[in-house]
Amino acid sequence: MVFARLSMSSLVQCKRPNETHAVSRRLRARDLLKTMRAVHGNGNSHSDSGRYGIVKGRPAATATVPQRATPTPRPRPTRPPTPAVLYVASGTFGVQGILYTLDPATGAVFTTVGPLNDAAGNNYGITGLKYHPVTGIFYGVTRDPTNPDYLVIDNPATALVTPIGPLGAILTDMAINPTIGFMYAVSGVNQNFYTIKTATGQAV
User: What domain range includes position 42?
Assistant: First the structure.
């Protein structure tokens, strides 16, 4: 705060004491206004900045933080699906039973797995092959020459045959329900539809 020193010589003598005091107050107000103008550096008495001491300036610059680019994740390559293996067996009407794999695109023989023999070397002719999706067992239905009309288990890697039991009917082909695992079969002789008990091989 700045104070102005007023000299007594600035007072104007008047005839009346009240007038003298009034002139003194006006002089003090005038000197104070000059002092405020000198301090604030603004000679315009009508300016708000000079009157109230408001200093105008430019607004402070706001720093902008650059945003970092979010890296886009690279998609992982999808593994190619495992190609399906198609099996087929021979052995009906006196032909030796042999297990093959086929090319699903052309139907041509892809590999010869081996003869459909049991542990004793007996050969089996198989008319139906099905993979059980629940248990993972490869089942077959035989015709001749060994144990005709039997339910058997076949090893798809070696073609080894393991007999389970007689079907009790001449079956042409079979199917397995992939949800509940039931095994079904059909006969081309009497056109009947059966269910097969996988534990005993019986068709009912």
Answer: 12-52
Question: Which amino acid appears at position 13 of this protein?
Answer: Q
Angstrom distances, CA of residue 5 to CA of 8, 21, 29, 34, 43: 10, 17, 12, 12, 20
Q: Are 91 and 113 in contact (CB under 8 A)?
A: no
Whole-model pTM?
A: 0.58
Residue 6 lies in a domain: no
Q: DSSP for 80-104? A: PPPPP-EEEE---TTPPPEEEEE-T
Q: What is the CATH classification number for the domain harbouring 110?
A: 2.120.10.80
Question: Three-state DSSP class for 175?
Answer: strand
Q: Based on C-alpha coordinates, what's the Rg of the chain?
A: 55
Task: Tell me: do 28 and 123 sit in the same domain.
Answer: no
Tell me: the pLDDT tens digits for 127-183?
889 988 888 899 999 987 788 899 999 999 999 999 999 999 989 889 999 888 899
Same domain, 23 and 112: no
Q: Tell me the pLDDT tens digit for each residue of 102-134.
A: 988 888 999 999 999 999 999 999 988 998 888
Residue with tokens 């003598």: 13
Q: Please, where are the H alpha helices in the chain?
A: 17-40, 48-52
